[in-house]
Structure formats: C-alpha cells, structure tokens
Amino acid sequence: MSYVHPKLQAFTGALEDLFREVDAELEDRYGGRFPLHPNRPRRGETCNPEMDGLFEVAPDFTAGFGSERGRGYLVSLRVATLERVPPAEFEALMVYTAELVRERLPRFFPGRSLELVRDGRRFKITGDFSLGEV
Predict the structure, then answer these.
(1) SS3 letters for 44-108?
(2) What is the C-alpha to C-alpha distance for residues 72 and 82, in angstroms, rounded to an integer?
(3) Other C-beta atoms within 10 Å of 122: how many?
(4) What is the pLDDT of residue 75?
(5) How far is CA 103 from CA 22, 75, 96, in A?
(6) Model's pTM, two decimal places?
(7) What is the 3-state secondary structure (H, E, C) of 19-61?
(8) CA–CA separation, 78 vs 56, rounded Å?
(9) pLDDT-derived band at 46, boundaries 50, 70, 90
(10) pLDDT tens digits, one per residue of 81-107
(11) 3-state DSSP assignment of residue 109
C-alpha cells in the first residue's frame, strides 16, 4: 500500500481538472479538423478525455535535466489521426493550447506562483510546486 500526501493529491487533481477543461475546449473548437484514428474512441466514450476524441492533452512531469527552465510539467499534445498534421498547423495548435493553459493557471492554482514558458519546442509549467508545511 502506498501513501500519497493529501496536498500532492490536491495539486495533481487540480492539474488534471485544468487539462480536462483545455481538452474540452480543443475538442469543441478543432475536434472535426482531422479524421479520428480508427482505433480511437469518439469523444465522450471513455471516462477520461485523454483517452478519447481527437486530442490528447496532458501534463508530463520532467525533472528538467538539460533544460534551462528546469523541472516542470510539459504540456503534451497529441492529435489522434492517421492523417499528416502539417508542422505549422501543429505549432498553431500547441500555441493555442498553451494560451488556454496559461489563462487558466491562476484559477486552478490561486495564490501559487506558476507560469507557462517556452522550453525549446515545447511549453512547460514552472514555478512553485512545493507542498507547503507538511
């Protein structure tokens, strides 16, 4: 049996809620842009929006080794299609996704100093990940 600190559970829960909201926005706006991969469930067919619909958007923690920005959560975006997504269009989707994450960070993490930065070709949430007094 493993123990997860309640403050860590609250942080990761808020992060998951943020990304679910961003996923919904992407699906609403661009969900019909490309044909869905034939093995991918349609939007709403699973209990986790990362696993269905055209987009998979999720936070991926990185320790930041080799990065000027250090540790943080990469904004991971995948388009679930067999069609080729032009690089310029994928970049536009990444920028739009980053804007959505950036504008929602203060609402999901009030009082916490977090920011979204460009880290190479990706976007990353950096800042205060501390759990405070334990």
Answers:
(1) CCCCCHHHCCCEEEEEEEECCCCCCCCCEEEEEEEECCCCCCCHHHHHHHHHHHHHHHHHHHHHH
(2) 30
(3) 18
(4) 97
(5) 10, 14, 11
(6) 0.90
(7) HHHHHHHHHHHHCCCCCCCCCCCCCCCCCCHHHCCCEEEEEEE
(8) 5
(9) confident
(10) 999 999 999 999 999 999 999 999 999
(11) coil
